[in-house]
Design the sequence.
C-alpha cells in the first residue's frame, strides 16, 4: 500500500503561483512512477505531470513551461510548482503513485486538493 496526502491548494489570482505538495508513505520502495493529475466537474481526470524512477518526466502540453514537478526523496515528498496560473487551471489536483510488483501494477491516489484561479 501507498498513502498519499496532498496539500497546498487554495485561491490564487490569474498570473499567480502556487506550490502543491504530496507526502507519500508505505511501500514506497516499489513505486516506479509518481505524478499529478487534475479534474474538473464533468470531465475526466487528466495528466498534469509525471516522472518515473528512471528519471523520465512528462508534462501535459498546456502546462509545459508553467508547471514543474519535483521530488525530495529524503523527505518522501513530491511537489508541483505552478506559475502563470490561468482560470482554466482551476481543478482538484490529485497526487498519483504507481507501484510495480512483478508484472502487476497498483495505482494509488490522494484525496485531492482544490486549486481555484480567480480574480
Sequence:
Amino acid at each position: 500500500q501507498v498513502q498519499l496526502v496532498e496539500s497546498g491548494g487554495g485561491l490564487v489570482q490569474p498570473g499567480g503561483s502556487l506550490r502543491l505538495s504530496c507526502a507519500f508513505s508505505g511501500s514506497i520502495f516499489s513505486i516506479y512512477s509518481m505524478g499529478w493529475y487534475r479534474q474538473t466537474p464533468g470531465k475526466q481526470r487528466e495528466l498534469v505531470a509525471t516522472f518515473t524512477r528512471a528519471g523520465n518526466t512528462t508534462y501535459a502540453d498546456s502546462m509545459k513551461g508553467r508547471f514543474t514537478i519535483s521530488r525530495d526523496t529524503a523527505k518522501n515528498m513530491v511537489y508541483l510548482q505552478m506559475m502563470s496560473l490561468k482560470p482554466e487551471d482551476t481543478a482538484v489536483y490529485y497526487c498519483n503513485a504507481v507501484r510495480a510488483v512483478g508484472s502487476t501494477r497498483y495505482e494509488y491516489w490522494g484525496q485531492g486538493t482544490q486549486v481555484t484561479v480567480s480574480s
Summary: DSSP finds no helices and eleven strands in the chain. The two ends are 40 Å apart (CA to CA). The chain has a mean pLDDT of 94.
